[in-house]
């Protein structure tokens, strides 16, 4: 299995320093007369700043929907491609990884999530995210709204309910909630979506140093958990 260009340390989870809302991704064939903003998001399912960034992006889209139509596509990134599929204790993993800094990092993320109306939960397991990316790809082939909403469900489960991102039942539960059909059959074969995930890694993630990363209309790039107003300014620039 190739995981090209993504040999990144999990420490990047906490390198970004910055500050929700459901969106409906409009198709490129929209007849509303509004300019279309296309956003390609590179993200990993265990990256807390990716969840923060998604919530802030959703706020910006909600505030800009009278001006623009939006098309959002999610693409894979692996903070730790060698992470075990069986999972490891999340809290113990971060304590080993960050040592004496772990408690400070946890306190900071707890505060940031609370400001979003969420409770940051360090219980449960962390580990390999490949199956989540295969499922996100599969959802996007059905409908971009379903893909966007699936990403939200996966983030909510992992970061606020102690769910393991590699647990098949959690993945299928999330897929059912957002209306993704055929997920069980798709995930049953470990080769389904693997080629496409690797292709997206090469196309969207090989040349970035971390996530979240946002490419707007193919030429304007943002990274990190940016506040809504930064996204809104980027929409304006991209529309010109």
From TrEMBL:
Recorded GO MF terms: oxidoreductase activity
Domain DSBA-like thioredoxin span(s) in chain numbering: 39-234
Protein name from the UniProt record: DSBA oxidoreductase family protein isoform 1
A family per Pfam: DSBA
GO biological process entries: defense response to fungus
Classification via InterPro entries: DSBA-like_thioredoxin_dom, Thioredoxin-like_sf
């Amino acid at each position: 299995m190739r995981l090209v260009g993504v040999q990144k340390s999990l420490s990047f989870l906490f390198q970004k320093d910055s500050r929700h809302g459901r969106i409906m991704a409009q198709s490129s064939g929209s007849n509303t007369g509004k300019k279309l903003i296309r956003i390609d998001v590179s993200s990993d399912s265990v990256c807390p700043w990716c969840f923060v960034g998604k919530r802030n992006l959703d706020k910006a889209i909600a505030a800009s929907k009278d001006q623009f139509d939006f098309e959002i596509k999610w693409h894979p990134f692996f903070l730790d491609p060698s992470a075990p599929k069986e999972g490891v204790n999340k809290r113990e993993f971060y304590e080993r990884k960050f040592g004496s800094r772990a408690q400070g990092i946890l306190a900071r993320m707890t505060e940031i999530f609370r400001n979003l109306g969420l409770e940051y939960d360090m219980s449960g397991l962390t580990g390999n995210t490949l199956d989540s990316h295969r499922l996100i790809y599969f959802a996007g082939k059905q409908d971009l709204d379903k893909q966007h909403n699936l990403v939200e469900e996966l983030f909510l489960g992992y970061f606020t309910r102690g769910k393991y991102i590699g647990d098949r039942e959690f993945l299928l539960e999330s897929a059912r909630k957002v209306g993704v059909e055929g997920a069980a059959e798709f995930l049953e074969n470990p080769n389904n979506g693997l080629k496409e995930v690797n292709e997206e890694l090469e196309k969207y993630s090989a040349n970035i140093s971390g996530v979240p990363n946002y490419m707007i209309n193919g030429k304007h790039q943002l990274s990190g958990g940016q506040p809504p107003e930064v996204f809104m300014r980027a929409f304006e620039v991209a529309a010109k």
